[in-house]
Specification:
The structure holds two protein chains of two kinds.
Chain A lengths: L2 H4 L12 H16 L5 E2 L13 H10 L5 E6 L6 H14 L2 E2 L8 E5 L12 E5 L13 H9 L4 H14 L10 E3 L3 E3 L9 H4 L5 E6 L4 E5 L5 E3 L26 E5 L6 E5 L2 H6 L8
Parallel strand pairs in A: 2-3, 2-4, 4-5, 5-8
Antiparallel strand pairs in A: 1-9, 6-7, 6-10, 8-9, 11-12
Helix pairs in contact in A: 2-3
Chain B lengths: L1 H4 L3 H16 L9 H7 L1 H11 L4 H10 L4 H12 L17 E6 L25 H4 L22 H7 L27 H10 L2 H12 L7 E15 L8 E15 L12 E8 L3 H14 L15 H7 L2 H9 L6 H17 L10
Helix pairs in contact in B: 3-4, 3-5, 4-5, 4-6, 5-6, 9-11, 10-11
Classes of the chains: A alpha/beta, B alpha+beta.
Chain lengths: 287, 362
C-alpha cells in the first residue's frame, strides 16, 4: 500500500485534485468563458463523491479555489441540506478555506438547483452542478448529432417542442432547467434551477461556471452576458408567483418551498434560500 | 418543524457512526483481515481491480472490507483513489502467448498445440451446497495438482487460423491508443478506446449486452476461440535505457472470440475477432466483453447497426457502474425546488383543464 494511502487525507493535494488536473480543468474553463454557452469536453476525474452528486461542480470549484477564498455551498437554496453539508465538509477537509452561509461574504458559491435571492456582484463566481448539460438531449439522444446541431445553431426542434406544449397545454410545461440562449448564440441548459431563477442569469455581474462531471462537460456565462429564456412574441417567458408570502420572513418575492405540516392538508410556505430568509430577520410579516 | 425537512450535520455524523458499526458486525466475531479477503474472496478482489482499473490486491481487499462487501461501492472507492495517482509510464503491450498459464481452453478445436488446461474452474462442478465448508477448520483436499502446467509453446488459436488466412489479421494500431481517463469520449470512438471502456465496464451490463447479441439483437455467430488465464510480465521502456525492463507481474484473463463473417465486395469470407481482457480471473467478464467488442465493430465491418449492443454511444456511455450508480442514486438527493416548480405548474394546468381553449388552439 502506498504512503499516500496510509497517510489519510494528508496524502492528497490542496483541493484533492493534483495540480496537473486542475490546470487541465482551468484550461477548459478559459475556453468555456471565451465561448459563452458552449459545452467544452474535459477529462473529468473520479471524485470521492458519487457521480450525479455534484462531481462536476466540485471539480470546477477545486480547480479555481485558493487559500484566500471564502466558500458557500447550497443545495435547493439551503446551506444545511445534507449534500451541501457533505460538499462543504469535503472542501473544509481538503483545502481548509473559510466557509460562509452569507451570499455576500462568499467569493465562490457552489450550488445545486438554485441561484441565491441576494443579487451576486462582480468578483464572485457561482459554480453550478449540472446533471445533463445538453439542452437538446430529450430531443436527440445522440451526442454526435447534438454537437452538429449546436455547430449549425440548428435550434428549430427546441422551438417546435415549446410550440407543441403551447398548442397542447396553452403554456410551456417546463418548470425547471428551462432552456436559454447565451450571448445570442448557444442554446444552454441552466441546470435544474426553477425557471424562476432564469432572469437572474441575464447580465449578471458574477462569473457563472457550470460543471457536469459524469457527462464530462464544462460551460460558462461570463459576467454581463445576455441570457435569454426561449419564448415567442405572443407567448412571452414568465416566472412562477405565489399567492402566499414566506411564513418566516414575510418575503413576497423569493422562491418558496412548500412544507406539509400535518396530514389534514395543512401546509406552510417558506423561503428556499435559507440564508436570505435569515438575513431578512425572523419577524413574521403582519399582512 | 422547519429544520426537520432539511438535513443536519449531526444526522450525517450519526449515520456514519451507524455505518461503521454495521460494517464491523458482531464484535464477538473476529474481524476480517485483508489477507483473508484477498486469499478467500479472491474473485471479488479480481472484479474490483478490473472495474476499478487498478491492479493492487491489497487496496482492492481494503475497498471490499470498507464497502461491506458491496463490490460496486468498492470499485468506486478504488477508482477515487486511482484517479489521484500520477501516470509514470506506459507499458509495452502484454504478451499472453508467453504467459505462464493456469487455464487455457478452446471451444473450436478438440486438441491443439499446448493442449487444453481446465485449471481452477467452476465449470463441471455440480452446484450443490457443500455443507462441509460450513464447518470451519477443515483442511483442503490433500495434494492438489500443481497450479501451473509446463506444456511447451501455446500458440494462439487465432494465429493458427491466421496462417490459412481464415481470420482477419489484427489491424496494426499505428496511432497511440487513447486514454479515456485523460480525454473524454468522442464519437466515433477508436477500438482501443472502446476496449478500454469495456475493460472498466460493469460486468453485469456487459453480460446482458453480450447475451442479447446471442439472442438475436445484433447476432454475430461467436465461437470461444480461446480463453487464457495466466500471469504476464509488465514491461516498460525507460527512455534513458531504451530497452524493456520488467516491473512486475499481473494475472489476466483473455478471451478471443472467433466470429462468422460472410465477406463483402472487397473482403473474402473469413472469421472476424472479438476481444476481451480482465484483471485476475474474470472469465465471464472477458467473454461478455469479447461479444460486445465484436458487436461494436458492426459499422467497421459494414453490418447494419440495429441492436443496442452495436450502438457505440449507447454502450460506451452506459457501461460504467461508477457513473451509473452515482446518477441513479442521486435521485435520493432533495429535489424540493424542482418538485415545487412542477407542483405549481401542475396545479396551474389542473385549474385550466376542461375550460374552453381560447387562443392556444388557433
Amino acid at each position: 500500500m502506498s504512503d499516500a494511502a496510509a497517510a489519510g487525507n494528508g496524502g492528497y493535494n490542496f483541493g484533492y485534485l493534483d495540480e496537473q488536473t486542475k490546470r487541465m480543468i482551468r484550461r477548459a474553463i478559459l475556453k468555456a468563458v471565451a465561448i459563452p454557452g458552449y459545452q467544452v469536453p474535459f477529462a473529468s476525474r473520479e471524485m470521492p463523491l458519487p457521480y450525479g452528486w455534484g462531481t462536476g461542480g466540485i471539480q470546477v470549484t477545486a480547480s479555481i479555489i485558493g487559500q484566500g477564498d471564502t466558500l458557500k455551498v447550497i443545495d435547493q437554496g439551503a446551506d444545511d441540506t445534507t449534500n451541501a453539508v457533505s460538499i462543504r465538509h469535503f472542501f473544509e477537509r481538503t483545502t481548509g478555506v473559510a466557509t460562509t452561509e452569507q451570499t455576500g461574504a462568499a467569493s465562490i458559491i457552489q450550488t445545486r438547483h438554485r441561484i441565491p435571492e441576494t443579487p451576486l456582484r462582480e468578483n464572485q463566481i457561482i459554480v453550478y452542478q449540472v446533471p445533463i448539460p445538453e439542452p437538446l438531449r430529450w430531443i436527440e439522444p445522440r451526442e454526435a448529432e447534438t454537437r452538429k446541431m449546436h455547430a449549425l445553431a440548428e435550434y428549430g426542434p427546441m422551438y417546435v417542442r415549446l410550440y407543441e406544449d403551447i398548442a397542447q397545454f396553452g403554456q410551456v410545461t417546463t418548470a425547471y432547467d428551462y432552456p436559454v440562449v447565451v450571448n445570442g448564440r448557444y442554446l444552454m441548459r441552466p441546470s435544474p434551477i426553477p425557471k424562476f431563477d432564469n432572469p437572474k442569469m441575464n447580465l449578471n455581474p458574477a462569473l457563472q461556471l457550470f460543471g457536469a462531471g459524469r457527462e464530462k462537460r464544462i460551460y460558462a456565462v461570463p459576467p454581463y452576458t445576455s441570457v435569454k429564456s426561449l419564448d415567442f412574441v405572443d407567448h412571452p417567458f414568465t416566472i412562477e408567483r405565489w399567492d402566499q408570502r414566506c411564513a418566516i420572513c414575510g418575503s413576497g418575492d423569493s422562491f418558496l418551498d412548500e412544507v406539509i405540516t400535518d396530514d389534514q392538508g395543512g401546509r406552510m410556505f417558506v423561503c428556499s434560500d435559507t440564508a436570505y430568509c435569515r438575513e431578512r430577520g425572523t419577524t413574521k410579516a403582519a399582512e | 418543524m422547519y429544520v426537520a425537512v432539511k438535513g443536519g450535520e449531526n444526522a450525517i455524523a450519526a449515520a456514519h457512526r451507524l455505518l461503521a458499526e454495521a460494517r464491523r458486525g458482531d464484535p464477538a466475531v473476529p474481524e476480517l483481515t485483508l489477507a483473508q479477503i484477498d486469499g478467500q474472496l479472491g474473485l471479488a478482489v479480481d472484479r474490483v481491480m478490473s472495474e476499478g482499473s487498478l491492479y493492487d490486491r491489497e487496496l482492492a481487499a481494503l475497498a471490499i472490507k470498507q464497502a461491506r462487501g458491496d463490490l460496486i461501492e468498492a470499485i468506486f472507492l478504488l477508482r477515487a483513489y486511482r484517479t489521484t495517482l500520477p501516470r509514470l509510464a506506459v507499458s509495452v503491450p502484454i504478451e499472453t502467448e508467453r504467459a505462464s498459464l493456469k487455464r487455457r481452453i478452446s471451444a473450436t478445436f478438440k486438441d491443439l498445440p499446448g493442449g487444453q488446461i481446465l485449471g481452477p474452474t467452476f465449470d463441471y462442478t455440480h452446484r450443490l451446497l457443500d455443507f462441509a465448508l460450513a464447518a470451519e477448520g477443515q483442511s483442503v483436499t490433500a495434494d492438489p495438482p500443481s497450479a501451473t502446467v509446463e506444456t511447451g509453446p501455446m500458440p494462439r488459436v487465432s494465429t493458427l487460423l491466421g496462417k490459412e488466412g481464415l481470420i482477419e489479421p489484427n489491424a496494426a494500431e499505428t496511432v497511440e491508443p487513447g486514454d479515456l481517463t485523460r480525454d473524454p469520449l468522442a464519437f466515433p470512438a477508436s477500438r482501443a478506446v472502446r476496449l478500454q471502456n469495456l475493460a472498466r465496464a460493469d460486468e453485469g451490463f456487459l453480460l446482458s449486452l453480450g447475451y442479447s447479441t446471442q439472442r438475436g439483437y445484433g447476432r454475430n455467430h461467436p465461437f470461444a476461440g480461446e480463453i487464457r488465464i495466466g500471469d504476464v510480465e509488465i514491461e516498460i521502456v525507460p527512455p534513458e535505457l531504451g530497452f524493456p525492463v520488467a516491473i512486475g507481474e499481473i494475472t489476466v484473463t483473455e478471451c478471443e472470440m472467433v466470429n462468422q463473417f460472410k465477406g463483402s465486395a472487397t473482403t473474402p469470407p473469413q472469421f472476424t475477432r472479438g476481444y476481451g481482457l480482465a484483471f485476475g480471473e474474470g472469465e465471464r467478464k472477458a467473454m461478455a466483453m469479447a461479444l460486445v467488442d465484436r458487436a461494436l465493430r458492426a459499422e467497421e465491418l459494414g453490418e447494419e447497426v440495429t441492436a443496442p449492443a452495436q450502438d457505440q454511444e449507447f454502450v460506451l456511455y452506459h457501461s460504467d457502474n461508477v457513473e451509473a450508480s452515482g446518477f441513479t442514486q442521486h435521485l435520493k438527493l432533495p429535489h424540493y425546488v424542482d418538485f415545487q416548480a412542477e407542483l405549481n405548474l401542475i396545479r396551474h394546468m389542473r385549474a385550466e383543464w376542461g375550460q374552453p381553449q381560447t387562443e392556444a388552439a388557433e
